[in-house]
Amino acid sequence: MRSNHSRASRTAAAVAAAALVATAGALVGSQSASAAAGCRVDYSVGSQWPGGFTANVVVTNLGDAVTGWRLAWSFAGDERITQSWNGSHTQSGAQVTAVNAAWNGAIATGATVSFGFNATTGSRPTSPAVFTLNGTACTGSTTTTTSTTSTTSTTSTITTPTTTTTTTTPQPSRPMIENNFPVTREGAYGDNRFTVFRPSNPQAVDRPLPVLAFGNGACAHTNNSEVTRVLTFIASKGFVVVDTGSVDGSPNGVPSGSPIPSLLTDAITWAEREQDRSGAPLRRRLDLSRVATAGHSCGGLEAMVAAQDRRVSAVVSLNSGFFADGSFGYPRSEVGKLHTPALFMDGGSSDVAYANNQATYDLATVPSVLARHPQAGHTGFITGSQLTDGMTTVVQFLDMVLNGNQTARAYILSPSGLAAKAPWTVTTKNF
Q: Where is this region: Disordered (predicted)?
């Protein structure tokens, strides 16, 4: 009997020990989950004027994908937002919160989202010191939180969070000039006053597409065949170009020969409608905070007058300029109404617009670039052997102003950039 009792005791102890081991094993069994958060904000003032400015904000998500974003910051001065796009905003004193629109709330890891706004200020605008994305400070690094979950036989859990910080080196954004997208040329949907040049597959472009409204030489408002090569080049770099003139040169009810700047502002309005049109290839693919006007010769006058529109953030005048006698109804005093950075290009002393271009640049008070190629004459940038050089300059300037791209900025403003490429001469001011 004693021997049997001992065996029973040993058996019970073994069962208890096994149960204890099983329980202990459950206690130390665990699952870990990690979540990363981090962001970088590129804030730039695209243009400014007495009493106000336009700002562009690009948010890069360095952490896990988010399905809705809320960016917060405080202004350093008296800035007050009057209008925003690609999102909505609230402001209380200096504190601002911007939230996504219905269509751009998702930001994948490494992806960007952009929005912009106009604001008033009594002083020079400055960049806010700190931004937070969904509560996480945007420092250019990521913070990873790891949660370890341990399970017991009674389903209780023990969670121990640990936090590590990994520094992410910000990568320079790809210069637009390096792109080479296939281009589609088509009539503007619902408006035969315009022809559209765009990347054939907008979804393949890794960023929203800036918009360029373009005016043709001789203020040609029906036939735009002369600028097809030029605008195809620009569109291949990731722009949507809306040009005056019907796609097949057919009559569209618009007379040619004199500037009609409202055509270019109407082109911008068309793009705004196309952004929201159901089934449009460009639906939700346009960046309406990055809009520019440009034009050649008489079209350059159209571009400079249209650039007074507050939706415009950059202007390019090719072989153009205001006349001293106010020809075409626009005197040189119009230059003082520009509120955006401007690029003035001409083809040297053989260019009939040479003197007007120089005078227009001299009168400009906005950040300005005067780029001159003495072999281009009046049409070399459009149809001559200087086309690639000229349009490369245009794309780099727009990339610098609209996107804040530093590589493009060096090309335009550095002594080792365009200025070092003979026979170009470059003069700048207010940058």
A: 140-177
Go through the chain and tell me how many residues it has. 431
In a domain? residue 74: yes
**What CA–CA distance (Å, rounded) separates 59 from 136?**
12
Q: Does some domain include residue 89?
A: yes
Query: How does 10-41 read in b/e, with b if 16+ C-beta sit within 10 Å?
Result: eeeeeeeeeeeeeeeeeeeeeeeeeebbbbbb
Task: Find the mean pLDDT for residues 90-107.
Answer: 87
126 and 215 fall within a common domain: no
Classify residue 59 by burial, with Cβ atoms within 10 Å: 0-12, 13-18, 19+.
Answer: buried
Q: How many domains, the chain? A: 2
Does residue 197 share a domain with residue 66?
Answer: no
**Which CA distances in Å does 372 have to 184, 345, 352, 399, 425?**
31, 6, 13, 19, 5
User: In this structure, are residues 335 and 301 in contact, taking their beta carbons and an 8 Å threshold?
Assistant: no
Give me 171's structure tokens.
């990568």
Same domain, 364 and 224: yes
Report the 10 Å Cβ neighbour count for 367.
19
- Mind listing the pLDDT tens digit for each residue in 193-211? 999 999 999 998 988 999 9
CATH number of residue 400's parent domain: 3.40.50.1820
Beta strands at 131-133 and 70-74: parallel, antiparallel or unpaired: antiparallel
- Look-up of token digits 């780099």: 396
Q: What does the block give as tokens for 185?
A: 């040329």
CA 93, chain centre distance (Å)? 27
Q: Looking at residue 114, what is its pLDDT? A: 85
Q: Tell me the CATH number at 69.
A: 2.60.40.290
Q: Where do we find the tokens 């001409």?
A: 346
What's the domain range around 248? 176-429
Short-list 396, 416, 418, CA closest to 406: 396
- End-to-end CA separation in angstroms for the chain: 103
Instruction: Tell me the per-residue pLDDT of 322-375, one tens digit each, with 9 for 90 and over.
Output: 999 999 999 999 999 998 899 999 999 999 999 999 999 999 998 999 999 999
pLDDT of residue 32: 53
Dihedral, 101, 103, 105, 106 alpha carbons, nearest 10:
-170
Give the pLDDT band (50/70/90) at residue 162.
very low
Task: Give pLDDT tens digits for 107-140.
Answer: 989 888 888 888 889 888 888 999 999 999 999 8
The bridge status of strand 240-244 relative to strand 209-215 is parallel
